Structures are given as C-alpha cells and as structure tokens.
Amino acid sequence: MHAADLRLVFWETTAACNLSCKHCRRLELDATRDELTTAEAKAMIDGIAQMGKPILVFSGGEPLMRPDLWELLAYAKAAGLTLALATNGTTVDEVVAERIAGAGVARVSISLDGADAATHDAFRGQVGSFEAALAGQARLRARGVGTQINCTVARHNRDQLVALRERCIAIGAEALHLFVVVPVGCGVELTAAMRLSADEVESVLGWLADQAGDPRLFVKATCAPQFARIARQKGKLGDLRGHAHGNKAGVNATTRGCLAGSAVCFVSAKGEVFPCGYLPVTCGHLRTQSFPDIWRDSLVFEQLRDPGLLGGKCGDCSFATTCGGCRARAYAISGDFLAEEPDCVYGINASA
Q: pLDDT category, 22, cuts 50, 70, 90?
C-alpha cells in the first residue's frame, strides 16, 4: 500500500494533567502507567522522521508534566522535525517559556474555552486557569514563540466567540482554532443539552468562515470538516489557503476536511497509533511495529484514505473529497468510522 503524505503527528506525551476539563479525550483517567519510555519515544521520533519530516505535536494530558520533555524536544529537533506544543498554558512561567523558546518550538497552542475567566475556569475545572493561560501566552509571545488559541465550542461559550476572536487579536495570537466536541472519552460527559446541534454547528462554522482573510488572525475548525465545505460555498477557501501558506510555523495549515489516517495520526502515551485522538480504532502499536510500517500498512488507514468507501450521505456528497465528514463522530454515534457524519446538515440533494 502506498503511504499517504504524513503532515501531522499528535503524540500524547503523557496522560498526566493538572486540570480536569469536561471535554478531555483521554480514554482512561488513570492512564499514566506504562507510558512510552525515553528510548521508546526516541525510536518513535526516528520512525516519524523517515516519513517526510512532518510536524510533531507534543500533546497530552499536559506535556509539560513529562519529565524528559526537554530531552525529547531536542531529539526531535535534531531529527529535522517541526515542533509544536499543545498545553493548557497554566504552568508556563518565565523559566518554562524560556525553555520552550530555546527548544525551537514553532508554535504553542493554548486553550481558552471562553472570553472571560468565569466561563473558561468553570469548563477547565480550576479557578485562575484563564488568567494563568493568558500569562503563559504573553510570556511565550515576548520570546518570539508563535501562539495559537484553541477553543472548545459548546453552548456555554457560543455567544462569546466574537469577543474571543477580538481577544486573540489583542494578545497577538497567530491563529484561532475552534474545536467541535466529539463524544468520546470524557467528552461523553457533555450532554446533548451542552453540545451544539447540527444547525448550531453550521451557524458557528459559517461565522468562522466569514472571518477568513483577515491577516491579523488565521482561523480554522477542528473536528468539523464541513468547515472546508462551508468556506468553499462562501468563496472563502482561497482566503484560508493564502493565509495558511503564509503561516511561518506551518502548523495545522491545511484547509481540507477530515485528515484522520490520511495526513494525520495520533500516538497514545502507551504507544498505540490511532487515526486521530478522537477515533479509538487501533491501527498498530509502537512496541510491536515501527511507525513507518504502521503508517504504510494499516488496513484502517487504507480505508480512511479512500473516500469511495464513505457511507450514507457522505458517500453521495459532492464535497466528499473536500470534507469527508468527521470519522470520529461517525464512529462515536454508529460504531462505523466510514458511516455518514451525524452532525452535518448538508443533504444529499443540496446544491453545491
């Protein structure tokens, strides 16, 4: 099987975290046992570096809680990989910010799940986490590290998105990524009443697409591949591509829909390889297979790379190759990762 062009690898460096967020993807809350050793992590990095030098995102949990993080960042940098770090930002003090900058991290993503402290702190489960995250972002920006703001969109903050965008611009963030919840792991704790309906998701993504082209802030949706379809319908896809190509870090700079298994994959703290962090279908294990072998030979990856296998309205949709529907959300609802996207309002007979 021909290996697809790998762009992004998200590695759950550790399941340990200092927060208890309501939407967390972690499949096991007590998952810090048996995590990849330093030697195993370096072997993984060597394998990833063989696949065209993709971006490696050190994620979690909270990656700053992994003791050998700095050693592994240096190792990945020496291997020629572009480095990104996904953190909640609350522990980024002056010393940590200096070490991140010194490690050559191209971009750090920090989560703000509301435009104010009350909203964010309630969602993140820790009073003071909003101000701490903002302080961490400011320290990184002062050292020339690019920052991206991630926001999980639900009914608690949908009316704050305009204010959040303005805050992102004011603090000098390079990008704003809106994440639409996938009901897996702790995400199932967000009830239907808390999650956005399909119509509400369409409205939010339409608003986000309208912001494309503003040179002050790159915008993108995560786990909402219909954003690419909506941007095309609004004539904004060119704006997104142009801004993405000008992104100095190149992190997450893509305007296609679901890339799980075709350009993106996720490695758990224990070395399991999944199509993405929200699709718990195992494609291989780094303790028994090399990363290149998994990326080239996984049957799950092969299926995800063929839009002709998509079922339901996704299979009949004219935007199948642009969007493809969220494979993780399809799996969460139906048990079939090739089934139709359940949270998309675009119908089979809708005009392009």
A: low
